[in-house]
Amino acid sequence: MAQVHGRGFTTYPEGMARSPLTLAALATSAVAGLDVTSAQRLGSGQPGSFEQAVLQVRGGGEVLVRVPRTQLADTRASTGLVALRALSTGIRARLPFSISSVLGQVPVGGTRAIVYDFLPGTVTALSDIHAGDGLAGSIGRAIAAIHALPTSFVADAALPVSRPLDALASSVAVMEQSVATGLVPAALVDRWERATEDPGLWQFVPTVVHGSLAGERVLRDGETVTAILGWETLAVADPATDLSWVLGAAAAEASDSVFDAYNRARGSTDRQIKKRAMLYAELEIAKWLLHGTSTRSTETVDDAVRMLHNLVDVVQNDLNRSIDTNTSPVMTVDEVETMLDRNERSS
Asked: What does the buried/exposed string (b/e) look like for 83-93 if buried means 16 or more CB atoms within 10 Å of the residue's CB?
């Protein structure tokens, strides 16, 4: 149920965590008239990026109070506030699921306590997604609804707006940095190079994207998506970004069902969206490798290398996992960038 933190956060020393009652007191300072009847810590109890608690309020409702514990968490919380404000009532009315609202905030230490309405639901595990038009269909339609939103409200809020050329450049940067470690198998180096040198892969129309979708951010009630959390990375970018996480589903048929529902809802003409989603999913492992090398974590590096070698076995034994279009001769990255830039100027 929680809006959870991701990898790479550096937490403050253990032992200074505020109690749920202290968090409740902060919430009552942030929201005038808030009448809290009980408070329960949310999360595993281990130090993390946020201190957070669910508060029962008189009348039976619930609210969530969160206090960032790191500078990175504070930055993400601030960006999240901008995104939630940009998601106006009119924008939200276009979506088939709920989004949190900010009820109030109050300064505390060098950061702030933020109070949100609490959205109930069950976190979506990849193992929950099965083939068919049940949960998979609901996920596909929910993502399609995000991508159908008008891009103007994102730009008006000064949130990131990127082009296909930016998506290509970002992917090339991750690829080159990870290859430079000498730990990426040659088969993957060749695979990723072919994808980044394929102009057909990078011709898409940017859309509004959530930007960091994952199962723990998608809440469901049975087979229906009821809420999506964590809007700190709201942007205009490659729609494939929001679909890459479903490729981790246990059965390929399950992720196929998500893409099928998405494409039906969007009437999509982006024939290469799944290939780019595959590339982004694979580059997440490369990012994990880079995180391990930057933090000098042997355990993380070993984990990433193991996943990369497992990936080689998967892609070499599944002809359906090709990520280049094979529709034209291979071009250099510079040639692809020039072509994309020319297309954007003429559109």
From this structure: bbebbeeeeee
* CATH 3.40.50.11590 at 20-120, yes or no: no
Q: Would you identify the CATH topology of the domain 123-346?
A: Aminoglycoside 3'-phosphotransferase; Chain: A, domain 2 (3.90.1200)
Q: Which are the contacts of 333, defined by CB distance < 8 A and separation ≥ 6?
A: 168, 172, 196, 197
Alpha-carbon distance of 178 to 184, in angstroms, equals: 7
Q: How is residue 95 annotated by DSSP?
A: S
Phi, psi of 225 (to 5 degrees): -70, 125
CA 72 to chain centre: 16
- pLDDT tens-digit readout, 149-160: 999 999 999 999
Task: Please report where in the chains the tokens 């008008």 appear, as a residue.
Answer: 150
* CB contact burial 125-144 (16+ within 10 A = b; e otherwise): ebebbebeebbbbbbbbbbb
Q: Which DSSP helix (H) or strand (E) runs through 339?
A: helix 333-346
Q: Where are the domains of the chain?
A: 20-120, 123-346
50-57 sheet: strands from edge to edge: 36-41, 50-57, 62-68, 111-117, 102-108
Which of 274, 347, 278 has its CA nearest to residue 314?
A: 278
Kind and range of the H or E element at 108? strand 102-108
The C-alpha atoms of residue 292 and residue 277 are separated, in whole angstroms, by 23
DSSP string, 143-195: HHHHHTS-THHHHHTT--B--HHHHHHHHHHHHHHHHTTT-S-HHHHHHHHHH
User: pLDDT tens across 159-205, in order?
Assistant: 999 999 999 999 999 999 999 999 999 999 999 999 999 999 999 99
